[in-house]
Give the backbone structure.
Amino acid sequence: MRQDARIASPPNTPPDRLSALDASFLDLDTAAAPLHVGWTMRFEGTAPPLAQLRRHLEARLDAVPRFRRRVASPRLGLGDLRWADDPGFDIARHVHALRLAAPGGPAELRELAGLLLSQPLDPSRPLWRLYLVDGLDRGGFAVVGQAHHALVDGIAAIEVALLLFTPQPSATPDGHGAWVPARPAPLTANGRDLVRTRLEGSGRAALSLAAAARRTDPARLREIAGAVEAFSRPSAPTSLDRTAGPDRVVAFATTDLEGVRTAGRRHGATINDMLLAACSLALGRALRRRSEHPASVKVLVPVNVRDGETTAGNKISFIGVELPVSETDPIRVLRRVRAQTRAAKDAGEAGPLAALADAADILPAAARRAVTRTAARAASFTAVVSNVPGPPVDLELLGRPLASLFPAVPCLDGHALTIGALSYRGRLNIGVTADAVVVPDVLDLGRDIEQAFDTLRVLPAAREVTPWRERAKDRRRLRSVPATGAGRS
C-alpha cells in the first residue's frame, strides 16, 4: 500500500467503548457456543477475484471503523473494554476464498456454511470474517460471513451491509488514503475516561429508570414487574436445552413476503406474529418426532430499542413468548401468539430489560460479568426467534446483484437452536442454526417452517370467538332441540 496519504483516527477522538450489552456477548461466549452472528449470501454472476474483493471492502472500511478494531482490555484494570485500532490489521486475515467440490449444489453450500459458522473468531483481531465461495452448480457465487455479536446486532449488521454491498463509490479510491492505526491512549487518559464513563453511565441509567417511572402508574409498574417475572419463569424442559459442542448445521427456508403480510392482515397479525406461529407449528412437529409433548415452550424474541437512531453495536432487548407447540390448528396458534405479542407491547415488556442494560454500564467489569451470567442462567427458554427488517434497497457486490440473504443467529451455551428471519427482494428468508449433535434433523425443521408458512398464507379470515357470539350460538342450538315432555303422546 502507498503511505503518502495516511489516514488515522484524530488524536482527540473519544474512546470507542463497548457498552455493557456489547460486553455481555463476550462474557457469555464459550468454546462450545461462540456468539457470532452470520449470514449466507447468494450473488448472481461470476465470482470476483479475491484480490479485487479485498480491495473493494478495504476501501470502504473507513465507514465502519470497528471492523479495523479489536477488543482491548484496560491497562492495569483502569477503564472499560474498548475498541482499539488493530496495529497489525490486514484485510487478508479477514477475507478468504473457497471453492465447492462438485456437485456444488444447495446441500453442499449448506454444509459448508455450517462448517464455517462453527469456527471461532480470533479474539486478538477484529471480530469478523468473510468467505468468498465459488463452484456453485447453478451459477453465481456465495459469501458466508460472520461477526461477533459484541460487534453488531441484527439491525447494525444490515447497516454494515448497506455500506459494504451497495454501489456507491468509495470515498478513498484504491491505492490512496492508506489507513494507519491510532496510537493507544495514555494511561492518564484511561483514568479520566473511567471517571467520565461511570458518570455518563450513571446519568443514562438514572434517566432511563426515571423515564420508565414517569410513564407508568403503580398498576403499570406492577405489570412490568410481572413481565420481568414471566421472563425468568421456567419454560417446559426439552431435549433442545443443551449444547453438545461448537459444530453447527444450518437450514434455509423462504416464503413470499407479501403473501405473509396479507395473510397476517386478515387476522390482525404482524409479520413477526406469522413467523412465531410458523415456528410454533414447526417446533411442535420437531418435538413430536422426539416423542416430546410439552403444551408450550418459551422462545426469546429480540426487540430493537434504537428509537429510530442508527447505533453501532447492540441496542436490543428481549421478550419471552410461549409458543403453543401442542396445538396443531394454525388459526388457534396464530391467535395465541398474537395475543401475547400485543400484551407484551402494551405492557412495555422490553423496556425493563433495556433499562437494566443501561444501568449495567455503571458496574465494574467483574460485577457486570456476574450479573450477565446470572441473568443468562435465569432466562429459561427453548430457542431464539429473531426477525430483522432487511435492506430497503437491492444490494450488489462489484456489480453482481445479491439474490438472497439468510441470517444465522448464534446459540447461547446450554441451548441448541435459533431461528432468524430477514426480508429481502419480496421474500422472507429464514435461517435455522443448530447444534449439529442435538438437532440432526435441522433440514426437516427448515422444511416444516416453510410448510407452516404455506398453510398460514392461505388461511381464510376467521371471525373472532367473542362471548356474545358464543351465547348466540347456544341460543340457536337450544331452539333446534325438539321439545320433550307435555304435548308429546
Summary: The radius of gyration is 25 Å. The chain is about 35% helix and 20% strand. The CA atoms of residues 417 and 434 lie 4 Å apart.
